[in-house]
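User: Can you recover a sequence for this backbone? Please restate the input before giving your answer.

Assistant: Of course. Working from this structure:
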């Protein structure tokens, strides 16, 4: 998402996220900025979805889309790589989890934009929080 990279970078110039709040809170705050939770962000998300659709058939736009997604993925992976192993089970793979977290966020954006009225702000926030709760179980905090 062209707006995603900017939103992540504005939170912290080095990581793109405010690491002082802890990884879960930093990710939650940054990713909420990417969801259509108000009219301004809804307009941005509509542009993003239209851009992504056009990038599917335009080699020039596809390059921009790939670079943007790679930058966002790198920021997410960086933050996720700082997460300690849980008390039980293996440590999640930051590479995989970054892809999944971006896919969850993009999926929420796509669904909210392509099916207006289907999701409330609370629905979108609850879906993101549910995934983050799974990714950051209480024994990590």
């Amino acid at each position: 998402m062209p707006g995603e990279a900017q939103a992540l970078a504005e939170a912290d110039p080095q990581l793109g996220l405010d690491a002082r709040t802890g990884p879960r809170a930093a990710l939650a705050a940054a990713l909420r900025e990417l969801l259509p939770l108000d009219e301004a962000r809804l307009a941005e998300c509509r542009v993003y979805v239209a851009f992504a659709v056009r990038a599917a058939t335009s080699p020039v736009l596809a390059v921009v889309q790939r670079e943007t997604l790679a930058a966002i993925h790198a920021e997410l992976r960086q933050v996720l790589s700082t997460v300690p192993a849980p008390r039980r089970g293996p440590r999640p793979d930051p590479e995989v989890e970054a892809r999944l977290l971006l896919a969850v966020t993009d999926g929420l954006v796509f669904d909210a934009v392509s099916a207006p009225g289907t999701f409330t702000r609370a629905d979108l926030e609850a879906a993101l929080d549910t995934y983050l709760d799974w990714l950051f179980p209480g024994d990590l905090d």
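That completes the design. The two ends are 29 Å apart (CA to CA).
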